[in-house]
Amino acid sequence: MFLKYVISYPFSPIFVAKVHHFVSFILVAYVWLQNRPVHFNSSTAFSFLAVFDLLSLLGTLLSVWLTVQKCYIVKLELGFTISSIVLLLLGSFCTFPLYDEDVKYILHAINIMHGYSIGLLMFAGIWAQFKTKNTISRLLIRNWGNADDEDQMEQLDFDDEL
After folding, report:
1. Is the C-alpha dihedral spanning 115, 92, 27, 21 positive or negative?
2. What pLDDT tens digit does each residue of the chain (162 aa) get?
3. Which domain holds residue 11?
4. Is residue 161 part of a domain?
5. Coil/strand/helix, residue 3
6. CA 105/CA 98 separation, integer angstroms
7. Is residue 89 part of a domain?
8. Residue 76: burial class (beta carbons within 10 Å; 0-12, 13-18, 19+)
9. Are the C-beta atoms of residues 14 and 66 closer than 8 Å to each other?
10. Does residue 38 sit within a domain?
């Protein structure tokens, strides 16, 4: 039942952008796992790349979880989005000291995926700022997301703003 709320108009582009960010994280993690033992086993900067990416993903997943739970606050969404963008930028900066002729294509691939994710998150932040409004369902307090009848789901569109 939560999917009806997530795929409703003002939230669906944000949800799609966050899913694409998650997929790009999986690709970066795959590249990271395949190349760490071979090229970067002693590199602290490459380890920081993984930490920053995981923290960025955590912010994105928390944002999606709150949206699925029908608790959407624009400023909180923007906070998660901006922090994810900053963490992705820090992850990209961690790759600069590692550039070498042997591994430059691997690092270019990682930075391209970071750029793609940053673009997605910038879109999600702009969309959140200008196209959405605060939505906290009254159902959230009583049943924490257990809306299973059609009338309760439609009620989400008419909940009061914060």
Report:
1. negative
2. 556 656 666 778 888 898 999 999 999 888 888 877 666 666 787 788 889 999 999 999 999 888 877 778 889 999 999 999 999 999 999 888 777 777 788 888 889 999 999 999 999 999 989 988 887 766 555 555 555 555 554 544 444 444
3. 1-32+43-155
4. no
5. helix
6. 12
7. yes
8. middle
9. no
10. no
